[in-house]
Amino acid sequence: MPRKQKATVVALVGAVVLLAGLWLIIRNIGTPTKPLNTLAPFGQQSQDIQNLTIPVFAVAGVIFMLVLVAMIWMVVRFRSPDGAVEGDDEPTQTHGNTPLEIGWTVVPAVLLAVLAILNVQTLLKLDDVGADPLEVTVVGQQWWWEYRYDLDGDQTPEIITATQMAMPAGRDVTVKIQSNDVIHSFWIPALNGKKDAVPGRTHELAFNSDTPGIYEGQCTEFCGLSHGVMRMQIKVLPPEEFDLWTASMLKPPEQPSSAAAARGEALFVGQCARCHEVNGLDPNSTEPYAYAAKPSPNYGAEVDSSLSSKNAPNLTNFMMRQTFAGNLLALWEGDASTAVVAVPGDVPGATPDKVNIKRWLRNPLDVKPMYAENNQGMPNLNLSEDQIDDLTEYLVTLGPTTRPSA
């Protein structure tokens, strides 16, 4: 077979193999069942990123294929034959080809200029929000996320929660990202790109999704022992469900109705309130305990928390969440742990996952690595099994476990 024809055949076979390999790589790349898949958009901003990613990677892929196939063709076409003597039958050497040099300078320059324009347009679109966005302050700390809702714009949050953020579908949301200790990075790939949480600074990120669902995220800036399991969630609710979520979160907890829960309440005040807030309770509270309608935004400093971040998750409406311990443990059994509803306890058959709660209370360090001896993360409080049972019975009373009646 002539060498030129052989080179063409080899190059074509190589192209087919490359295309097959690329297809195997990308065929499931946008599968939405993968929780951290940046190529499965469910929000306006993530779709804008996708609309930029596809043409950029398409152009890069075509160039990659052309260069690689041309290289394979030239290697085969101009390979020295067996037994060839070095220096014999070498091709005529040429120095300089002005049209070719202009071509391979101008074409890439134009291509990069077009891609730069698309990039700038996309970056500007990512910051676009409507006239009345919902604003949520997101605070990162080792190793969990806090969400603060200032609903009336008075610069004081009416709702402080942790682990799982809720937002309404179809409405612009602006999150103001901060940090209490070290640098973290907030990333919900299904809804937008990532943004760093830096101590002393506030960075903004916009979200808008028309698709109700629970979307997973992960801290992407190394921040210590539990960086790899510092997760977050955003729950996008239909507007009427978000209104119900807001109304439920604004209600203070009801007083415990069982003796075990009452003992757990007293234990919480004596042990847990040194770091955790339930609105109205603090380490100096006395019976009968009274709950407050609003949280204290500086609770950790007020009670002189020993934590380095001076902050621990607010537990006022603990059971309104579906996960805890930085999204590592489910708070509800069965479908209630993943249902896209305002009140998880309203799901038929919903049962609090007391096993997980007790596991965490028994020894948090068995669940996630923390540096408790340096006041980073929750320590082992060495609670007795009776204390763990009582505290669990109290915690499951925090927040509505069924849909409030109209």
Q: What is the class of the largest domain in the CATH system?
A: Mainly Alpha
- The CATH topology of the largest domain: Cytochrome Bc1 Complex, Chain D, domain 2
Tell me the radius of gyration. Answer: 29 Å
Described by strand count, sense and barrel closure, the largest sheet is: 5 strands, mixed
The CATH architecture of the largest domain can be named as Orthogonal Bundle
Tell me the strand order in the biggest sheet: 3-2-1-5-8
Overview of the molecule:
The protein is an alpha+beta fold and 406 residues long. The chain has three domains: 1-23 and 34-74, no CATH class; 134-238, Immunoglobulin-like, CATH 2.60.40; 259-395, Cytochrome Bc1 Complex, Chain D, domain 2, CATH 1.10.760. 34% of the residues lie in helices and 15% in strands. The protein is built from eight helices and twelve strands. Strands 3-2-1-5-8 form a five-stranded mixed β-sheet. A three-stranded mixed β-sheet has the order 4-10-9. Strand 1 (134-141) and strand 2 (144-149) form a beta hairpin. Helix 5 crosses helix 8. The longest helix is centred in the N-terminal third of the chain and has 34 residues, at 44-77. The radius of gyration is 29 Å and the shape is elongated.
Features of this protein?
three-stranded mixed β-sheet; 15% strand; 8 helices; 3 domains; Immunoglobulin-like; five-stranded mixed β-sheet; Cytochrome Bc1 Complex, Chain D, domain 2; 406 residues; alpha+beta; single chain
Write the topology of this structure.
Elements: H1 3-26, H2 44-77, H3 98-126, E1 134-141, E2 144-149, E3 159-162, E4 164-168, E5 173-179, E6 184-187, E7 194-197, E8 203-207, E9 213-218, E10 231-237, H4 239-250, H5 259-272, H6 299-302, E11 323-324, E12 329-330, H7 354-362, H8 385-395
Parallel strand pairs: 1-5, 4-10
Antiparallel strand pairs: 1-2, 2-3, 5-8, 6-7, 9-10, 11-12
